[in-house]
Design a protein that fits this description.
Largest sheet: 3 strands, mixed
Number of strands: 3
Helix content: 55-70%
Strand content: 5-15%
Number of helices: 9
Strand order of the largest sheet: 1-2-3
Distance between the termini: 34 Å
């Protein structure tokens, strides 16, 4: 597990450094070009890239936290720091989009439609499109290798940035042809709405993890099938799965013959664990509770094999 942790931290750190360098250059170029040209859309695109710089700087700080071993204050380790940070970043992205919408609507209401187009605005936009495509690709690849929801969320954000820059380009062309920045302001508002949509999407995903939820029943089916493959293990129930920064933390009960020894029951539990890890990637920990067959206990939490069949009947 220590090797996997080192790999994860290395890839997250590399993705963050690439993002800081790339987005700092793009943000500076677009903000300057936006001020010179008077393009609210281009300026907003630059501000959006500035939030990407902030995201990456915070990511670098988080790597040092999640790499810490478990301690008396955090017996589960520090991996939740990544999840909490992702939630925080969704709010940063949301308010950046809201501010862009506010300033653009204000310009429209005030009738500020003057537009001083410049070659630098087009150059900055083309550079943004190319740069964001490369950055999004690098973040996605490194995020997948690390199994990092935070880095993959950043990749999604940068993919949205490509569409934003394409919209800015369209706004520049229309505004140049019409000699008015009305189209530019309208596109800036649409960009702000898109940024907010991205923020909400990221928050919904991370909130599912914070609530120990799952958007699919398939992982539960995998562990039920794995348990049923092991001789001596039966009646999988109270199954609970949660994500911890991209890794699965799994807990469930199984029934065994009440006449076998503790050692035999322990061996069955070990075989169950190995079978699950063969079928499911990124398993952080598995807790198997062994019960004597026929000993019925009240179940408050978790899912059973019967629940799985019920989901199938429901068409899920």
């Amino acid at each position: 597990m220590s090797a996997k942790k080192r790999d994860k931290n290395f890839y997250i750190r590399a993705a963050a450094i690439i993002s800081v360098v790339g987005n700092t250059a793009l943000a500076g170029f677009k903000i300057i070009a936006g001020i010179i040209s008077g393009s609210g859309a281009l300026l907003g695109d630059g501000i959006d890239s500035s939030t990407d710089v902030l995201i990456s700087v915070v990511t670098l700080a988080v790597v040092s936290i999640i790499s810490k071993p478990a301690d008396t204050g955090h017996p589960w380790g520090h991996r939740r720091a990544e999840t909490i940070t992702t939630a925080f970043l969704s709010f940063v992205i949301f308010f950046a989009g809201a501010q862009l919408i506010y300033s653009s609507v204000t310009n429209l209401i005030a009738g500020r439609h003057s537009f001083n187009i410049s070659v630098s605005a087009f150059i900055a936009t083309f550079a943004s499109i190319a740069g964001k495509m490369l950055l999004a690709w690098s973040q996605y690849i490194l995020g997948k290798r690390a199994g990092s929801a935070m880095t993959i969320a950043n990749a999604k954000n940068m993919t949205s940035d490509v569409l934003i820059s394409l919209s800015v380009l369209a706004g520049l062309i229309v505004s140049t042809l019409s000699d008015s920045s009305i189209a530019d302001s309208v596109i800036a508002i649409l960009i702000g709405a898109w940024v907010i949509r991205t923020a909400v999407s990221i928050f919904i995903d991370v909130n599912l993890e914070l609530m120990d939820g799952s958007d699919s029943i398939e992982p539960y089916k995998v562990i039920i099938e794995a348990i049923n493959e092991i001789e001596g293990a039966s009646n999988p129930h109270r199954a609970r799965m949660r994500r911890v920064a991209g890794f699965w933390d799994i807990s469930f009960d199984i029934d065994v013959d009440p006449g076998i020894t503790v050692k035999q029951a322990h061996d069955i539990a070990n075989r169950v664990e190995k079978e699950i890890k063969k079928r499911l990637e990124n398993v952080f920990d598995i807790m198997v509770h062994v019960e004597p067959r026929g000993d019925v206990t009240e179940e408050i939490f978790g899912l059973s094999e019967e629940d799985m069949r019920g989901e199938d009947k429901a068409g899920i």
